[in-house]
Model the fold of this input.
Amino acid sequence: QLVESGGGLVQPGGSLLLPCATSGFTFSSYVMKWYCQAPGKERELVVSITSAGGSTKYADSVKGRFTISRDNAWNTVYLQMNSLQPEGTAVYYCNAVHRVRAQYDYWGQGTQVTVSS
Done:
C-alpha cells in the first residue's frame, strides 16, 4: 500500500512536501518514483530514486526545484517541491517498482497539488 499526502493549494513560488508512506512490501528493495498527471494530459515521470537511495533522476522541468529522498527505516519516500509554478498543478502519484522483478509495481491513489494565486 502506498499513501501520498501533503498536497493542497499553494501560491506560485511556494513549496510543498509530499510524503508517500508505504507498507506491505520490502521497501528497501524497490525503486521509488513520483509521477504527475495534469488535467487533460498523460501521466509523466517526475523523478526516481534507487532502492538504496544512491542515485536519482529528475525530469528536466523540475531539476533544481524538486528533491526526492527516502527513509528506508520508515518506509517512506518524500518529494520536496520548491518554486512551484502554475504548470505544476497536477495529481502527484507515488510508484514503487521492484529493483529486479519489475512486475511488482504498486501505485498510490495520488494527491492533488494546485498552484494558483
Remarks:
- The longest strand covers residues 90-98.
- The chain has no helices and eleven strands.
